[in-house]
């Protein structure tokens, strides 16, 4: 499976990846974000598509599930009960509610169905701090 890899030494916190996500999905909120770490450096945060995702284990309705074929964690908003257990369970703090309706979960989908195979954050990062890598 391909996953997003971040070289934090290259990241300058310019938020281009966040803007690229918003534009790609035509939404007023991004599915990724940048925080500042304890050393006062920018820290991009993306879904890790965990091997054993806590978000899927806590989801009562199956709205969060691990796709056995693609190995991606997927979100089905039609099945979501808006309990936000997935948000609370995520050890990386990646998941969040959308900022407008506070209803849907904002989760990176690697820009599935948008353009070619590379997510927009990877394509648009001016520092090449974000890349796709194949995980074992």
Summarize the structure.
The protein is α+β, with helices and mostly antiparallel strands and 136 residues long. The protein has helices at 16-25, 54-58, 85-89, 120-124; strands at 2-6, 33-36, 42-45, 64-66, 73-75, 96-97, 105-106, 130-134. It has a two-stranded antiparallel sheet. Strands 2-3 form a two-stranded antiparallel ribbon.
Classify the beta-strand content into a percent band: 15-25%
Lateral strand order in the biggest sheet: 1-8
Helix content estimate: 10-25%
Number of strands: 8
Order of helices and strands: EHEEHEEHEEHE
Give an overview in words.
By secondary structure, the protein is of the alpha+beta class. It has helices at residues 16-25, 54-58, 85-89, 120-124, and strands at 2-6, 33-36, 42-45, 64-66, 73-75, 96-97, 105-106, 130-134. The strands form four sheets. It has a two-stranded antiparallel sheet with strand order 1-8. A hairpin with a 7-residue loop joins strand 6 (96-97) and strand 7 (105-106).
